[in-house]
Amino acid sequence: MYEKDGEKYFIVDSHSHFWDASRENWKPGAEQYAKGWIDCFYGYHQLGPPETHWDYEKYLKVTPEDFERDMFIEGHVDYAIFQSTYLKEWYTNGFNTVDQNAQLLERFGDRLIVNGRFDPRDGDEGLKQLEADVAKYHLKGVKLYTAEWNGDSRGYKLSDPEAYRFLQAAQDLGIKNIHVHKGPTIWPLDKDAFDVADVDHAATDFPDLNFIVEHVGLPRIEDFCFMAVQEPNVYAGLSVVIGGLMHARPKFFAKVMGELMFWVGEDKMLFGGDYNIWTPKWQIEGFVDWQMPDEDQFSDYSKLTTATKKKILGLNAAKLYDIPVPPELQLPTTADEPAAPGQELVDNTAGPRA
Amino acid sequence: MNLRPAVWAALATVLDPELDEPITELDFVETCTVSPDGVASVVLRLPTFFCAPNFSWLMVADAYDAVSAVPGVTRADVKLADHHAAAEINGGVAAQAGFVEAFSGQAVAELDELRKQFFRKAALAGQDRVAQPLVDAGAGPEDLAATTLGQLDPSPELDRMRKRRAALGLPHGDDAPLLIDAEGNAIPPEAVPLHLRRARLQRVGIETNGAYCKDLLKARYSHPATRTS
C-alpha cells in the first residue's frame, strides 16, 4: 500500500521477475548470448532515474532478501505477479523458471502469484503438464510466447485450432488471464512477431478469458490500440511503459498514456514494474505524482484522476486475479466485466479533434 | 578527391525501416572512412545485441548498395558490429546473397513485404505530421478532406510523405488528397476526426519507438560493462 496526500493506493505489480543471469549460469558455449540478453535488460535499466541505477554485478542476480526489500518493504507492492522466461539454451538452469519463482512462493506466498505457461504445439503432453501445474500452483494466469520456435514450428497463432484447445482447457481449469508477449523475437529471424490479429480472434471467441498484451505491443502500440478498442476483454500491460519512458522521455510517456486512455481506457490498463529491470518504488511514487502536461500538444488527452491512478496501479489487476482488496481502498472498475467496446470508434464517428 | 562527404551523404539516404529515420541521424554509423584507392569502410552499430536481424539486415544491405553507388568508390566494406547475427549479416551482404540464403534454415521469406509494411505506417504517420499545422490553424474536417498535396506549402515532411506513398504505389501527385486510407481512397469528412486520431497514434508509436532506440544506444555505448566489442 502506498499513501500520498491522504490517498491510499492498493498496489498490484502485474509483471515481475526473479532471474538468475549470474556468470555461473551462463551456459558454456553460449556465453555471448547470455551476456547479450542481460546487457539488453541493463540498457533498459539505465532509462530509470540515475539514483536508482545498480551496479552491473548486482543486477545479474538478486537475493530473496533484495526482492523482499525492493518489492514489499520499500516498494509499496501489496501483490506481485510473476511471469516466467526460460531461455535454457543460454542459461544452464534457465533464466527465470516457474521453479525458481516458486522458491519465493514458499516465503511470500500470501503476496505472490505465479503464472504458468503452455505451448499448444506440445499436444496431449502439454495439456497434462498444464493440469499438473494448475494443481500445484493454483494458476489463474499464463504467459504465452507465440513466436517461440518449437521443433520444426516457427511459432503459432492464438487462433490456431490447437491453441483453441488449450485455451478451452485453461478456461475449464479455472485460468482466467492470458498474458501474451507480443514483442521482439530473436528466432525465427524473418518473423514479424508483433502481429496482434490472432489475439483479436481469440478474444472474440473466448469472451470469458482476459487477454493482457504485455508492453502494450511496443514498438507497435498502434496495432495493439486498433485491436483493443474493439475487444472488451483485451487489456494493456504497462510494463516497460512507465519504467522506460516516464523518467527518460516524459513527453513521449504523456503521449503514450494519452493514447492508451483514449483507445483502451483506464479500467483496462495494468501497472507492471518489471522487477528487476527496474524497482517499483520510483515508478509508483512517480506515477502517483504524475499528471498530463498542460501544454497545447497534450490538450486533446484527458487528465488522470486519483481514481484513474488507483485503478491502474492495482485495482484493475486485483479484480482480474480475485485479489482481496481492503474495503477502504476499493473503487468500482469495469475490469473483468464485459464492458461495451468503443463502438463509436469502430464506427468511425468519434474523435475530439478537427 | 575526398570521397567521405559523398559516402556520408549516401548513408544519409539509408533508413531504419521501422523508425523511418536515417541511420546517420540515429547515430548508427560508428565509423566511416575512405582509403586513397576508393575503398569505403563503414561500421554500423545498433541499440542492442538482439535488435531484430531482419531490420538489421535491411540497414546493412541498403548501406552497402548506397555506398557502392557513389562515383569513385571502388569497393564498399560495410560491417555491423556488436550484434548476435553479425557474422551472417556481414557475410551475406558482402556476398550479395539474399536474406534467406544468408540465414539458411532460419528464415523462409525475403524482406520486401516487411519494408512495405513500414512504408504504410510511415505514410499514415506522415498525414498527422502534415495535417497537424492545418488543424492548429483551424481547419475543419470538410477543409481537410478537400485538401490536396498541391495546395500545401512545401516542407520536408510533405516530401517524405510523398516518397513513402510513391514507394507503395499510392497517390502522391499534386492532385492527390492529403488524407487517404491504406488503399489510397480519400477520407470523407465525417471520417476525418477518427482518421486523424489513427494517424496521430501511428506517429506516436513510431516516434516513441525511436526515442527508446536512441536512449538504449546511448546507454549501450556509454557503459563499460555492456560494451561488448
Automatic annotation (TrEMBL), chain A:
Transmembrane segments: none
Chain segments carrying region Disordered: 329-354
Stored Pfam families: Amidohydro_2
Stretches assigned to the Amidohydrolase-related domain: 12-323
GO molecular function annotations of the record: hydrolase activity
Entries under PANTHER family matching the protein: BLR3681 PROTEIN
Name of this chain's protein: Amidohydrolase-related domain-containing protein
Organism (species): Pseudonocardia thermophila
Automatic annotation (TrEMBL), chain B:
One protein family per Pfam: FeS_assembly_P
Domain MIP18 family-like residues, every copy: 6-78
Coiled-coil positions: none
UniProt protein name: MIP18 family-like domain-containing protein
